[in-house]
């Protein structure tokens, strides 16, 4: 069905944004992965044992920003009439602009802060596609699903498993295309490569309007 196809294409386009931001923050800013919390919460606990108070303060701030992003999504979804996908694009664009400005402080810990807020908004706004639950901002569950579905298809030859496996493998590919783009651009432009992520946001927004157009055409 064309609507499902367009929805999956949108999901993959947004995954490029997630990969770009993940690669950008890790490569340019002290190995910080701002798309998720697992590694940073581990660093927080390690910092507590090592009495590295500055590190603990930043990691705690990151946790609060990430939590705030999730809380914002819950409130905005209930209160705003605007599609949360559009809200996510706006928040992502604003976050990228803030990262670009904060880069001028020369402090990597401050510069990545906006990503901790925008990432969960994107995750929640684009958490499913074609009936598949999939993150656009990190890869753990996507790897699990891709491998399990492909293995199941090899054993049982169910076409649905192959279809869904392709979706997850494509999500992983698009995410890491974003990572590769961020690293290549960072080699030439350093921290200022963040501005190129606005192009990825624009492309994903175009895919969103293609998806919406397909829905309107189908239902009218």
Protein model, in words:
This protein has 220 residues and is mainly alpha-helical. The chain has a single domain, classed as Growth Hormone, Chain: A, CATH 1.20.1250. The protein has helices spanning 2-28, 38-49, 53-79, 84-102, 108-111, 113-125, 140-156, 159-189, 197-219; strands at 128-129, 132-133. The protein has a two-stranded antiparallel sheet. A hairpin with a 2-residue loop joins β1 (128-129) and β2 (132-133). α2 (38-49) runs antiparallel to α3 (53-79) and α4 (84-102) runs antiparallel to α9.
Summarize this structure as a short list of keywords or feature phrases.
220 residues; mainly alpha; Growth Hormone, Chain: A; two-stranded antiparallel ribbon; 9 helices; 2 strands; 79% helix; 2% strand
Give me a quick take on this structure.
By secondary structure, the chain is mainly α.
């Amino acid at each position: 069905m064309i609507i499902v196809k367009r929805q999956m294409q949108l999901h993959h386009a947004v995954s490029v944004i997630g990969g770009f931001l993940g690669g950008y923050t890790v490569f340019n800013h002290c190995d910080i992965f701002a798309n998720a919390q697992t590694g940073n919460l581990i660093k927080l606990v390690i910092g507590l044992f090592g009495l590295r108070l500055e590190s603990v303060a930043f990691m705690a701030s990151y946790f609060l920003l990430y939590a705030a992003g999730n809380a914002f999504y819950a409130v905005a979804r209930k209160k705003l009439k605007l599609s949360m996908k559009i809200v996510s694009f706006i928040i992502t664009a604003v976050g990228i602009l803030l990262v670009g400005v904060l880069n001028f402080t020369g402090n990597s810990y401050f510069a990545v802060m906006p990503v901790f807020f925008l990432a969960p908004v994107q995750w929640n706004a684009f958490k499913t596609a074609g009936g598949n639950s999939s993150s656009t901002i990190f890869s753990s569950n996507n790897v699990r699903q891709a491998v399990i579905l492909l293995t199941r298809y090899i054993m049982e030859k169910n076409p649905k498993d192959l279809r869904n496996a392709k979706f997850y493998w494509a999500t992983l590919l698009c995410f890491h295309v974003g990572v590769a783009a961020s690293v290549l651009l960072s080699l030439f432009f350093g921290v200022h490569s963040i501005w190129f992520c606005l192009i990825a946001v624009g492309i994903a927004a175009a895919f969103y309007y293609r998806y919406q157009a397909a829905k309107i055409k189908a239902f009218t």
